[in-house]
């Protein structure tokens, strides 16, 4: 248990002790337990009043997740659909990479890849209107997840702008989000070794 009355005296990592770092881990365990709440808040922050889309990004995210759920997608993919645009808040020009990085410790390589690349796959539907290459996604044809990402975008993302679609509320997805976020391996850097292998 973290001793909140004790103020650390170290000023750089190189002069901190093992006990200091164990205290940091105790703090981070408590703080990180609230990560699902922070992600839920991030999703809610997409509920802007003005939008050029038929629905705003909050409604779009809920609708994408609903479509994935109704399609029988596994829970990880449903949650990927729910959070795929949360990166828009801080990284609007490469939001897929930010959303993917947020979820990487908790999801499969496939789900991570879909989140990371969904933006370029979405571009199939509009790049050609804006001076881009709608087939830019084809540079990833050799990926084993290419078709999964194409399906995700076509069936859950690009079509999730229907104001009349019977969309489930955020509360419906909250237990799923908490389950997915409970599966992580913790600090990813602790799983790395000098020779590139994973620690036990």
Question: What is the structure about, briefly put?
Answer:
The protein has 200 residues and is mostly helical. It has helices at 18-32, 35-44, 57-70, 75-83, 95-103, 109-122, 146-157, 170-181.
Share in β-strands: under 5%
- Largest sheet, strands/sense/barrel: none
Provide the residue-averaged pLDDT: 91
Bulk shape: globular
CA gyration radius, whole angstroms: 20 Å
Discrete helix count: 8
Helix content: 40-55%
> Order of SSEs, N→C?
HHHHHHHH
Structural class, by secondary structure, is mainly alpha
Number of strands: 0
Residue windows where pLDDT falls under 50 for at least 5 positions = none
End-to-end Cα distance: 26 Å
Domain HD: 57-124
Protein name: HD domain-containing protein
Organism: Ruegeria haliotis
Pfam families: HD
Features:
single chain; 200 residues; mainly alpha; 8 helices; globular; HD domain-containing protein; OP_Dioxygenase
Q: Can you give a write-up of this model?
A:
- With about 200 residues, the protein is mostly helical.
- The protein is built from 8 helices and no strands.
- The longest helix is centred in the first third of the chain and has 15 residues, at about 20-30.
- The relative contact order is 0.13.
- The mean pLDDT is about 90.
């Amino acid at each position: 248990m973290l001793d909140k009355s004790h103020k650390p005296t170290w000023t750089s990592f190189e002069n901190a002790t093992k006990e200091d770092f164990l205290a940091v881990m105790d703090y981070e365990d408590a703080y990180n337990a609230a990560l699902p709440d922070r992600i839920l808040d991030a999703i809610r922050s997409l509920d802007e009043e003005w939008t050029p889309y038929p629905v705003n990004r909050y409604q779009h995210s809920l609708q994408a997740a609903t479509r994935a759920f109704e399609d029988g997608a596994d829970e990880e993919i449903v949650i990927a659909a729910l959070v795929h645009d949360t990166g828009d808040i801080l990284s609007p020009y490469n939001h897929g990479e930010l959303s993917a990085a947020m979820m990487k410790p908790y999801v499969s390589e496939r789900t991570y890849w879909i989140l990371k690349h969904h933006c370029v796959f979405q571009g199939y539907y509009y790049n050609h209107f804006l001076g881009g290459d709608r087939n830019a996604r084809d540079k990833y044809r050799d990926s084993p997840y290419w078709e999964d990402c194409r399906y995700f975008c076509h069936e859950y993302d690009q079509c999730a702008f229907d104001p009349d679609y019977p969309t489930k509320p955020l509360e419906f997805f909250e237990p799923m989000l908490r389950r997915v976020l409970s599966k992580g391996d913790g600090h990813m850097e602790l799983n790395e070794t000098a020779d590139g292998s994973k620690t036990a």
